[in-house]
Amino acid sequence: MKKITIAEMAKYNGQTIKLGAWVANKRSSGKIAFLQLRDGSGFVQGVVVKAEAGEEIFAKAKALTQETSLYVTGQVKEDERSAFGYELAITDIEVIHEATDFPITPKEHGTEFLMDNRHLWLRSRKQHAIMKIRNEIIRATYEFFNDNGFVKVDPPILTGSSPEGTSELFATKYFDEDAYLSQSGQLYMEAAAMALGKVFSFGPTFRAEKSKTRRHLIEFWMIEPEMAFVEHAESLEVQEQYVSHIVQSVLKNCQIELERLGRDTSKLEKIKAPFPRVTYDDAIKWLNENGFDDIKWGEDFGAPHETALAESYDMPIFITHYPIGIKPFYMQPHPERDDVVLCADMIAPEGYGEIIGGSERIHDYELMKKRIQEHNLDETAYEWYLDLSKYGAVPHSGFGLGLERTVAWISGAEHVRESIPFPRLLNRLYP
Ligand code: 4AD
Ligand code: MG
C-alpha cells in the first residue's frame, strides 16, 4: 500500500492509498461517518460507510476524538462539492495515538485563550492557510531576487550599531561589551552591495516598541534588498515589481488557502505595477482637506492617516519625500530641497498600513559624518560604515519589507499576530 500525503491525492484518483493524518473534526449518523482529516499538507474529508467498511471499522470511526492521530486506508474519489476536489472512501483505520480533550474545539474561543495555545492553534484550518501563504511569499521572494541578479546575504543578528535610532533597541551583553539585537540589517547590506552589487537579506529583526497595535510585533521578519548604482526612482520600480510578483504568486499557488480564508481575491488581482506615487506634501494637503486637521507638515502619519490615504486607491501607494526630521540619519537629501529626503514608504491597501520603508542612501562622506553627529550617534560604532563613503562611494538605494504585515494584508488576517508562527508581542513571550 502506497503511503502518500493529502496534497498528492489528485495523482492517485481511483486508487487505494494510505494516509497518516489527524482527526480535525467528525460527524456521524447510524450508517455513515464523515472524518475531516488533516496531515499538514492539506485537509480532506474521509467517508466511512458502515455497509462497506464493516461494523468494526465503523465503530472505530464513530469513537474517534479530535486530534487523534491515525493511519487510514481508502480509495481516492473525485468530489466536485469540495474546494479540494477529492475525498477518501475509508476502508481501514489504525489509531496511532488517541487524543482526549483537545482544548481548541470547533466552537469560538477568545483571542487570549487561542494565543496561550498558539502551539495547538497552529493546527486550525485558518492558521494553516496563513502559514502556507507566508511560505509562498518567502518562496516568491527568493524567486524574484534570484531571477533579477540579487545575491542573498545574511547580516548579523548581534550588533554594535543601530540603523533606525536607539530608542527601540534590545540591549544585551556580548561578554564584556554592550550589544543589541538587530533592528535592521541595512547598514551591513550596504557594505555587501559594495561587494556584490545587488543583494537581499531575509531574517528576524527586533524592536522594543511599546506599541500594542494590530501592525506591531516585537520580533518580525524583514526582507532587505540593497542596490549599488540605483537611485531613488529606480528603487521604487523594483519595489512595485517585487510586491506585484508576490501577490500574483500567492493568487496562483494558494487558491485553496485564499478560498478557505474567504479572502476577496478580486482586490488582489488588481495588484500589478505600477503603483501610484504621492508626495508627503500632497498627502498632508489631502489629509487636511479631508477632515484630518490634527496633522501638520513635519509630523509622521498615524495608522488612521495611512488608512485614509490608501483608501482612495485600490493599489498599494508610495508616499515619497518625507521631512528630513522624521526619518533616519542615512537618507539622501532631495537635490533641490533641504527639508525632505529621497525616500518612500509603501502603504498597503485595505488598512494594513506601511509594508515597506526605503530610501536612497547618503554616499558623501562629510555629509554622512555630519548626520551621524546630528543624530547623537556613537561615532566609533559607525566607523566601519563611514568607510563605505570613503572608498569608491556610489549612489545606492534599498528598502525593507515587513513580512508579517505583508502576510496579514494578502491573507486578510485582522492582526499581525496571526501571520507569524509564534508571535512576540508586548506582553507575550509564551509559548
Ligand atoms: O520602515 P522600517 O523601520 O525601515 C527599516 O528598518 C529600514 N532600515 C529598511 C531598509 O531600508 N533596509 O521598517 C521596514 C518595514 C516596515 O515598513 C514594516 O513593514 C516593518 O518593517 N516593520 C514592522 N513590522 C511588524 N512589527 C513592527 N514593530 C515593525 N516595524 C517595522
Ligand atoms: Mg518605516
What does this structure look like?
It is a single chain. By secondary structure, this protein is of the alpha+beta class. The protein has 2 domains: 3-97, Nucleic acid-binding proteins (OB fold (Dihydrolipoamide Acetyltransferase, E2P), Beta Barrel), CATH 2.40.50; 118-419, BirA Bifunctional Protein, domain 2, CATH 3.30.930.10. Helix content is 31%, strand content 26%. An 8-stranded mixed sheet has the order 7-11-12-17-16-15-14-13. The protein has a 5-stranded mixed beta barrel with strand order 2-3-4-6-5. The chain is elongated and about 85 Å long. The chain starts with a strand and ends in a 20-residue tail after the last helix. The mean pLDDT is 96. Bound molecules: 4-amino-1,4-dioxobutan-2-aminium adenosine-5'-monophosphate (4AD) and magnesium ion. 4-amino-1,4-dioxobutan-2-aminium adenosine-5'-monophosphate is lined by residues 163-164, 184, 186, 207, 209, 216-217, 220, 222, 224, 354-358, 398-400, 402, 404-405, 416.
Distance between the termini: 39 Å
- Say what oligomer this is: single chain
Helicity range of the residues?
25-40%
Strand order of the largest sheet: 7-11-12-17-16-15-14-13
Number of strands: 17
Separate helix tally: 14
Look up the CATH topology of the largest domain: BirA Bifunctional Protein, domain 2
CATH C-level class of the largest domain is Alpha Beta
The major pleated sheet works out as: 8 strands, mixed
Number of domains: 2
Instruction: Note poorly predicted spans.
Output: none
Q: Structural class of the helices, strands and pairings? A: alpha+beta
Sheet-strand content, in percent, reads 25-35%
Gyration radius, in Å: 26 Å
CATH architecture of the largest domain: 2-Layer Sandwich
The pLDDT mean sits at 96
**Looking at this structure, what is the CATH superfamily of the largest domain?**
Bira Bifunctional Protein, Domain 2
Protein name: Asparagine--tRNA ligase
Keywords: Aminoacyl-tRNA synthetase, ATP-binding, Cytoplasm, Ligase, Nucleotide-binding, Protein biosynthesis
Domain Aminoacyl-transfer RNA synthetases class-II family profile: 131-431
GO molecular function, one term: asparagine-tRNA ligase activity
